[in-house]
Specification:
The protein is of the alpha+beta class. Helix content is 27%, strand content 51%. Helix 2 packs across helix 4.
């Protein structure tokens, strides 16, 4: 599965960058996140509950940051395990840039499903993932005292 998006946040770029790297902010903004913490300068552990339509799954996993250019971009990659249903893995390239009204945050992401989760159907999982992405940006903007709106693809 592939996802992409561009959002205009009415906040300065450095504020957006700091929030993207603050685990308390991320935990408050990621729907279903019960724990996220840095275990090194570029590695995190997380626990997230996700609703795939009628099914609720809890994942625990590891995330890694790479290709970091401060206040500009990074790549986030990781794997999560949902018990007997298998797991998920994915990566996202995240970039931020100045805009006359604040900051543009753009991302491209790819994800893959293992085992029984894949049997639920890519369409169902994709819709659920897009809902999580949309809720994250709404919460993220609010957490940094900004507003957010989607932008067309560039």
């Amino acid at each position: 599965m592939k996802f992409a998006g561009r959002y205009l946040l009415t906040a300065p770029r450095m504020r957006v960058w700091e929030a993207l790297n603050d685990t308390a902010t991320l935990q408050a903004c990621i729907p279903g996140c019960t724990r996220i913490e840095f275990v090194s300068d570029s590695a995190l552990e997380a626990e997230i509950g996700v609703d795939f339509g009628p099914i609720h799954l809890s994942f625990s996993g590891n995330l890694a940051l790479s290709d970091i250019i401060v206040a500009e971009r990074y790549t986030l990659s990781g794997k999560g395990h949902g018990g007997w249903l298998g797991g998920v893995r994915g990566s996202a390239d995240v970039g931020i840039a100045d805009h006359p009204e604040g900051t543009v945050l753009a991302f491209t992401a790819e994800g893959a499903l293992d085992s029984a989760i894949g049997g639920m159907g890519t369409a169902l999982v994709g819709r659920s993932a897009q809902s999580v992405i949309d809720r994250f940006f709404e919460r993220f903007a609010g957490a940094i005292g900004a507003t957010s709106r989607p932008l067309p693809a560039s």
